[in-house]
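lol forgot to send this yesterday, sorry. struct tokens for the thing we talked abt
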């Protein structure tokens, strides 16, 4: 047996409305949703876009400024770990 704690008010209200609409308990609605997800777990279908058709070139003015001492991302030792951390932080921020 599992216990599910819903901390998002929007999800909680949506589940309550759905349960009331279907004349079922919230736990039954959640179980049906989980069962549906497990049995119909198909990859998302989306249209792939051509990156060249949907990108623009950024033209910065060229200056005589000396940038030899500028080392962006010099503190990054492990690029894979750095990118993974950035992605995780982005997902957590959008959740």
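and heres what i got for the seq, position by position
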């Amino acid at each position: 047996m599992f216990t599910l704690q819903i901390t998002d008010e929007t999800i909680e209200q949506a589940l309550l409305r759905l349960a009331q609409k279907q004349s079922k308990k919230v736990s039954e609605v959640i179980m049906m949703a989980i069962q549906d997800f497990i049995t119909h777990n198909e990859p998302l279908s989306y249209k792939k876009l051509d990156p060249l058709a949907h990108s623009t070139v950024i033209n910065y003015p060229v200056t005589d400024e000396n940038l030899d001492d500028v080392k962006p991302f010099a503190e990054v030792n492990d690029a894979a770990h750095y990118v993974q951390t950035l992605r995780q932080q982005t997902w957590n921020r959008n959740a």
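The mean pLDDT is 87. anyway ping me if u want another try
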